[in-house]
Amino acid sequence: MSKADKKGRHHLHIELTPAQYRLLAEQAKACGLSKRAYLVRLIEGKAVRVRPSQEVKDLRWEVHKIGVNINQIARSVNAGIARAEDARRGLFLLERVYELLYEVVRK
Predict the structure, then answer these.
(1) Are both 32 and 65 inside the same structural domain?
(2) Distances from the Cα of 60 to the Cαs of 9, 15, 19, 71, 82, in angstroms?
(3) What is the mean pLDDT of the chain?
(4) DSSP of the chain, one letter per residue?
(5) Which of 48, 63, 72, 98 has the lowest tally of Cβ within 10 angstroms?
(6) How many structural domains comprise the chain?
(7) What pLDDT score does 59 carry?
(8) Does residue 25 lie within any of the structural domains?
(9) Does residue 62 share a domain with residue 46?
(10) What pLDDT, on a 0 to 100 scale, did the predictor assign at position 1?
(11) Single pTM value for the model
(12) CA 41, CA 58: separation in Å to the nearest integer?
């Protein structure tokens, strides 16, 4: 067993092929982690998730905006202010949410 440093940490040297190193670097970067942090999470059995792409971030923002609009329509319906056109607009927006989600899932 290796000897710990002053802080009680053990240092490990491993050898990787160029392909293995490139794969490690790519996977760690995709998760927004350093190579060390990525390996430690794997060893500890913690979840290692790839950060969402810009497309997914944009989709989340669009869904949020649509949700805000639908909530505004619901409030006006509950207050007795909404018209049939408002309800149709809400259904249209909801359909748009489903279309956007379908586009992402298809890819």
Answers:
(1) no
(2) 41, 40, 34, 16, 27
(3) 84
(4) -PPP-TTS---------HHHHHHHHHHHHHHT--HHHHHHHHHHT----PPPPHHHHHHHHHHHHHHHHHHHHHHHHHTT---HHHHHHHHHHHHHHHHHHHHHHH-
(5) 98
(6) 2
(7) 80
(8) yes
(9) no
(10) 59
(11) 0.52
(12) 28
Is residue 89, in this structure, part of any structural domain at all?
A: yes
User: Is the domain of 59 the same as that of 42?
Assistant: no
1-22 tens-digit pLDDT: 567 888 888 888 899 999 999 9
Same domain, 42 and 83: no
Cβ(87)–Cβ(77) below 8 Å? yes
- Pair (63, 35) in one structural domain: no
On whether both 61 and 32 belong to a single domain, the answer is: no
Q: One-letter amino acid identity for 18?
A: P
Q: Which of 44-48, 76-80, 95-99 has the highest mean pLDDT?
A: 44-48
Residue 37's domain spans which residues? 13-51
Query: What's the whole-number mean pLDDT along residues 21-40?
Result: 94
